[in-house]
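Exercise 7. Given the encoded structure of a 473-residue chain, write a plausible sequence.
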């Protein structure tokens, strides 16, 4: 068995002693997840600074038969970046590789290293009068390699797509230490299999992403955000259709949040207040934008919302025309995870169904959860424009006191939420991935041939099974 000190010595000779940690107190933040749901042990946490150093670490781990867990900002919500409890794994954290290598304005693309934090990338794009449209609550901590490896979504998917749609090229270190250079900024390339797509959403099971070429977009010059109250999810779906008919692809985000969820945000974030009384069961947060300076988003909103009022789709509506007001509305959405953490034991699911099935899904799931799970607050929040809803059950700490009681409650919630999604032709994981959380469920809900193809693909890249073992399949 490899001792931590043996490994640390060999790793330090390759990347420098400063970048190899074995002391459990120092490695702890990297061994547990953001929500505090998963914690593991590690032989060492290493911080390579270049693709060659990543390759050297992978070769060293392969020689010694050690499992490897790739990690970026460690904001993942399914335990994908957390090692198992046996203490054999080497955690390879790519955060030091955070350079922006090249910005090609004419090609509307940027080449960026895996450890670059999303907020820094967005600021860089902004300084070049461009937009990198990926936006999620973890924007200040999540990194490009993690975003690629989870095929992250967020609030801009409706207009710009998820990470898969934003990646033009990748650089990946394979498990055997070879560096695959797919860093091309092409929008068209039909020369054989599109290999980069395999690594997107692979959750660190096929290799370690070290850099990516990503799409940039013209920066929106005019925008407005509205918050509207809705009597039902059915009305929300009709409102989305109405907006799309009138405003087309200028809709940047269309998010749905339940009243129960907004009340929790207000309770734990005293600085945040809904701009309207919380009187209806659902609220939509809608952002529209364009890069044509002469387009008037307030007028577009006014006309669309008037039509929605006439059709009795909406109750109240507030349109924020300046950035500060819009940010206050979006803060309600982006502080959901943090508020729920304080409210109780949170079971947040990440399912998707066809948008047309959302009303039936919410109704069935809410009824079943209320019936089957005692002392739980049921909330809904999510990217409605993509059919992706987070069904959230928050268990009261007074009733669910032990980890076992919480896990038993979570099992009931998850079974209901997933069964109903699959019945409606949906997915058990729309954007967070499989990680540790859903490993068993994937087998249950995916057809056997899907599982077999995934296993064969994985074995082709990683015949010894050293990459992120125990995750996905
Ligand atoms: P990590 O958590 O470090 O890793 C995630 C997975 O990717 C792991 O399996 C890991 O092994 C692998 N990995 C990481 N880096 C690499 C690499 N360089 N090469 C190969 N594999 C790698 N997600 C959404 O999709 N949409 C949301 O709206 C959203 N909102 C969130 C809000 C909050 C408040 C939080 C805390 C999280 C949210 N997330 C959301 C989840 C999370 O931020 C994303 O999954 C993000 O993409 C993870 O990036 P990371 O750098 O933190 O990756």
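Solution.
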């Amino acid at each position: 068995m490899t001792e931590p000190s043996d490994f640390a010595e060999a790793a330090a000779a390759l990347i420098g002693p400063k970048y190899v940690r074995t002391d459990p107190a120092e490695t702890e933040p990297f061994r547990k997840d953001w929500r505090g749901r998963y914690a593991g042990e590690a032989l060492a946490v290493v911080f390579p600074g270049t693709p060659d150093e990543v390759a050297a670490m992978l070769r060293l781990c392969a020689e010694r038969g050690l499992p490897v867990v790739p990690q970026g900002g460690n904001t993942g919500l399914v335990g994908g970046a957390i090692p198992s409890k046996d203490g054999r794994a080497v955690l390879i954290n790519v955060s030091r590789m955070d350079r922006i290598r090249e910005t090609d304005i004419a090609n509307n693309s940027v080449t960026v290293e895996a450890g670059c934090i999303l907020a820094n990338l967005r600021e860089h794009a902004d300084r070049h009068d461009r937009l990198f449209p990926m936006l999620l609550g973890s924007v200040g901590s999540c990194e490009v390699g993690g975003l690629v490896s989870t095929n992250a979504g967020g609030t801009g998917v409706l207009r710009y797509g998820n990470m898969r749609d934003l990646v033009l090229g990748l650089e990946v270190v394979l498990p055997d230490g070879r560096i695959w250079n797919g860093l091309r900024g092409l929008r068209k390339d039909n020369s054989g299999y599109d290999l980069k797509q395999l690594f997107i959403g692979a959750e660190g099971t096929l290799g370690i992403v070290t850099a990516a070429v990503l799409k940039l977009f013209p920066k929106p010059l005019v925008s407005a955000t509205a918050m509207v109250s809705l009597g039902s999810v059915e009305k929300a779906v009709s409102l989305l259709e109405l907006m799309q008919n009138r405003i087309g692809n200028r809709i940047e985000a269309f998010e749905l949040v339940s009243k129960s969820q907004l009340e929790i945000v207000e309770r734990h974030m005293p600085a945040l207040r809904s701009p309207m009384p919380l009187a209806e069961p659902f609220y939509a947060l809608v952002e529209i934008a364009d890069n044509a300076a002469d387009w008037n988003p307030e007028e577009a909103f006014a006309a669309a919302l008037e039509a929605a009022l006439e059709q009795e789709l909406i109750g109240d509506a507030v349109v924020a025309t300046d950035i500060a007001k819009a940010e206050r509305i979006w803060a309600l959405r982006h502080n959901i995870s943090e508020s729920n953490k304080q409210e109780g034991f949170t079971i947040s699911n990440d399912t998707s169904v066809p948008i047309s099935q959302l009303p039936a899904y919410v109704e069935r799931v809410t009824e079943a959860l209320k019936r089957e799970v005692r002392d739980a607050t049921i909330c809904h929040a999510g990217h409605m424009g993509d059919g992706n809803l987070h069904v959230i059950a928050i268990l009261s700490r007074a009733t669910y006191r032990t980890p076992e009681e919480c896990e038993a409650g979570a099992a009931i919630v998850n079974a209901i939420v997933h069964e109903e999604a699959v019945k409606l032709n949906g997915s058990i994981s729309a954007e967070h991935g499989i990680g540790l959380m859903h490993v068993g469920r994937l087998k249950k809900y995916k057809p056997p041939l899907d599982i077999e193809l995934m296993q064969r693909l994985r074995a082709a890249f990683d015949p010894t099974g050293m990459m992120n073992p125990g995750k996905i399949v």
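Remark. The pocket of flavin-adenine dinucleotide is lined by residues 34, 69-77, 80-81, 94, 114, 136-138, 142-143, 145-147, 149-150, 152-154, 203-204, 208-209, 337, 431-432, 435, 468 (CB under 6 Å). Students should compare their own answers with the one above.
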